[in-house]
Task: structure prediction
Amino acid sequence: MRTNNRRVRAAVLVGAATLVAASLHPDEPRPDYRDGGRGQLEMNACAGQRADAAKKRLGALLAELDGVLQPQVRQSLAGVQTRWAELRDLDCRWERSLFEGGSVAPLVYASCIAAQTEQRIDRLKLFLCEGAGMTGPCEASRKY
Result:
């Protein structure tokens, strides 16, 4: 039973590291956590930096959307965004709880935050485009 638990945790850790790499902006270099040269603290710090960078990009996108959306839509988005961030944080805290007390918990949490924030960016950036992105990405959305 204990061996299966370790295997599950190892699989989730690999998945978390993969999420961090997959959640990076296309122009950013992708860290390779498989090389064995990084310690857990460095991996945790790297994941935290990625989460912070994703949050900053989302903030910039929201500020840009604020300038193009109609007032009523802008106000509605603000409320939705607050609820989305609450759900993201709750979901990521739950995921981290699976590793409570372990050194990998910060990596799991930050990886979750980064991945979900990048998904949110991918969805919202299309609203910078004509027709809310119904015809695909536009020049304004490509920078995100």
Q: What stands out?
A: Helices lie at 2-22, 40-68, 71-97, 105-124, 139-142. The longest helix spans residues 40-68. The chain has a mean pLDDT of 83. Residues 2-142 form a domain with the Substrate Binding Domain Of Dnak; Chain:A; Domain 2 fold (CATH 1.20.1270.180).
